Amino acid sequence: MSVFLEGIAWLFSPDRLSGPNPLPERLAEHLGYTLLALVIAAVIAVPLGYLIGHTGRGRDLAVGLSGAARALPSLGLLFVLTLLVGIGDAPVAATIVFVVLGIPPILAGAYAGFESVDRRVVDAARSVGMTPLQVALRVEAPLGLPLLIAGVRSAALQIVSTAVLAAYVNLGGLGIYLQRGIQLRSYDEMIGGAIVVVLLAFAIDGFFALLQRLCTPAGVRVAGGAAQTTRGRRHRRPATPRGAAQ
Amino acid sequence: MTAVSTRRRLMRAGAAAVALATAVTLTACGTSDSLSGGGESTASSSGAITIGSQDYYSNEIIAEIYAQALEDSGQTVERSFRIGQRDVYMEALTSGEIQLIPDYTGNLLQFYDADTELRSSEEVAAALPDALPDGISALEAAPAQDADSYNVSAEFSSANGITSLTDLADYDGTLTVGGNAELESRPYGPDGLKELYGVDVDFAAIGDSGGPLTKQAILDDDIQLGDIYSADPDLAGGDFVTLDDPENLLLAQNVVPVVDDAVADRVTDVLAPVNAALTTDELIALNAASVNDQKDAATIATDWLTSKGLLG
Amino acid sequence: MTWILANLGLIGDLMLVHLRLSLIPVVVSILVAVPLGRLAHRVGWLRGGVLSVVGLLYTIPSLALITLLPPLLGTPVLSDVNVLVALGLYGVALLTRSVADAFDAVDADVVRSAMAVGYTPLRRFWTVELPLAVPVIVAGTRVVAVSTVSLVTVGALVGSRNLGSLFTDGLQRGIVPEIVAGIVATVVLALVLDLVIAAVGRALTPWARVSGTSGAARRASRRRAHRAEVPGTAAEDAVTGGGAA
């Protein structure tokens, strides 16, 4: 256990602010890659997921492709893409890998959100004269938002875990401490780095949990029935599995 | 009974068979001992000698050469290759899971004596016996070296008149050195360059151990200096210039068989002529057969031993 | 292609090693998660605690977990055991929730009927509740299996030898086909394991077909059962191919 204390000591050493690998800088890189990939993945997956959820078409295809994508080992994908584009364009290779990782859960969250909307509510919206676009944007999207955020939350956790690998292709991030620690057998650095990664993951998870709560439409929250169940289970993680997170 | 339901029953039987096969696999897993690293042959005067190798293609070729030479001498050999890194295989060696593994003198010494100031082949080899744990010995080292080395592109070298680490101090631009992440903290890394040669460098962590990413980065001028193993076949191609190291910043890394004392007598005489023939140029040729011709270690070893007249 | 053709034996060997490294955590997680999930289902006040803990566990990045385990377990830093334990923990984390959901989804009327005809609690569990929970548990197991096979490759960074070794070796030697072969072999292994588990699931639940329940109907009923927590269903379907496979 003393190794943990050494890891914590490493974490709070003044050297973390200076030296070759300042912690704030590596943390910022790690968060930067995660955010960039998350945004790109969302831009691709949300409209696609909404389309699938609204029309009910292409669902099986999306399900199949997502399943296959989850089986893809990110480490191999990162190495082969970096070899192909060269180390100078490693950020491109890494971003592609992280985006591929982030799309399936966001896609699933988007269409599951639409599918979760009670058909009677959709019929009611139509009957008061809403166009299909209005139904999608004003009814299905807001009601499906908590589930979409659950998907984004899952994607964010996968990407933040996998961004550890960026260090292997000169992109820094928090993985650099793990890589150095393992190779130099300096276990305080290894443990300290691992602790930061875990804390970051917890923080991101907590952030999205909060967001999920805030984004549940007020009407749904105060209403009975399904909303009550939602509230009762708020403390539980969404089960959207992370699949091949590294 | 319709055709459909018959088909279903067949499918169910098929699924059951698959389940059974899975169960059998699992049972087999339960009895496998490879979690602990494989064979547990105790070193004796007649049993099989278990040879290990690092998780590094070039090391596997050398291990395979040792294995074939020993087999040719009438010994029984078991191969436990690609064990991993030094932590793992030295543990396997001291616990008797393996009895022989090729290593590199400098890194081996540094593993047991992190602050060693020794640099030359002779000094390092002389210091090894005291550094190694009891019951483990290093045999006579080969002339072949596979050491860290600093390399620049031929273009950069000729444009700036740089052929030695000494020349770098006069270079005006920014210098970035690329290598595995841990190089940044090694005594021969940026700190060593500063201390011995008065050069300030930035560092780029490229985790391919001086492989294609590092080399391409040098050619693309993303980095100016790259840490590449000296037996890398690409270094001989003319695209790169390996910088001289007159101040002996870098540790000597001669190939050396490390053995369990219990089998030392049985392998020393067999490996001596093999090691004697193994020069750095030969090692480069062996690595080229692996990297360029994509041959497997066993084929490369047989070809080499045959060409040297070391078989039969 | 030269490399792949010359190294089919190596790829095959590594696939077997990889399969073993994947199967052990999957089997262990089934053995741990079924009682744990059942407990969460039965004991109301335990449910929140158990599911929160496994949820948090699942949040921990794998490479970080693998490197944090040695001081906890007293294992060497570069040891397969760390990889196996880390993946086992993820499996338990994912599956415990599936198991709890699976028992929740068993129709209460069916359970009451079993009670009414005099089944003891133990017999009720083995002959009524567990079999009816199997489809959802199998779906969860398939998710665990696919992600485990993929995650094993990360072990190559900490000295574990498996298909991920083709990535590190291929990178060092600059052989792209070697890395691609590793990726393809990993995906194939994951999908084959997925299909095998699905087949086992079908073999264990013959009534699901005998009664003529179609894939679509099953999917719909599962969606109904999960209305309250759809992320689970959606993701399950997304990963496993839902009722399509």
UniProtKB/TrEMBL annotation, chain A:
Name of the protein in question: ABC transporter permease
Parts of the chain that traverse the membrane: 31-53, 65-87, 93-114, 135-153, 159-178, 190-211
InterPro entries associated with the record: ABC_transp_perm/SBD, MetI-like, MetI-like_sf
Presence of the UniProt keyword Transport in the record: yes
Membrane topology annotation: Multi-pass membrane protein
Keywords: Membrane, Transmembrane, Transmembrane helix, Transport
UniProt family annotation: Belongs to the binding-protein-dependent transport system permease family.
Any single GO BP term: transmembrane transport
Automatic annotation (TrEMBL), chain B:
GO CC annotations, alphabetized: ATP-binding cassette (ABC) transporter complex
Keywords for this protein: Signal
Domain ABC-type glycine betaine transport system substrate-binding: residue ranges: 48-306
Signal peptide annotation: 1-28
A GO molecular-function descriptor: transmembrane transporter activity
Name assigned to this protein: ABC transporter substrate-binding protein
Species assigned in the record: Mycetocola reblochoni
Record has Hydrolase as a keyword: no
InterPro entries assigned: ABC_Gly_betaine_transp_sub-bd, TAT_signal
Record's keyword annotation contains Signal: yes
Gene3D superfamilies the record matches: Osmoprotection protein (prox), domain 2, Periplasmic binding protein-like II
TrEMBL record, chain C:
Protein name according to UniProt: ABC transporter permease
PANTHER family attached to this UniProt entry: GLYCINE BETAINE/L-PROLINE TRANSPORT SYSTEM PERMEASE PROTEIN PROW, OSMOPROTECTANT IMPORT PERMEASE PROTEIN OSMW
Source organism of this protein record: Mycetocola reblochoni
Sequence segments annotated as region (Disordered): 218-245
Domain annotation ABC transmembrane type-1: ranges: 15-197
CC annotations in GO: plasma membrane
Ranges annotated as spanning the membrane: 15-36, 48-69, 81-100, 132-159, 179-200
Topology term for the membrane: Multi-pass membrane protein
Record keywords, A-Z: Membrane, Transmembrane, Transmembrane helix, Transport
Keyword Ligase found: no
Compartment(s): Cell membrane; Membrane
Pfam families from the UniProt entry: BPD_transp_1
Top-rank taxon: Bacteria
Family label: Belongs to the binding-protein-dependent transport system permease family.
Key word Transmembrane present: yes
GO biological process, one term: glycine betaine transport
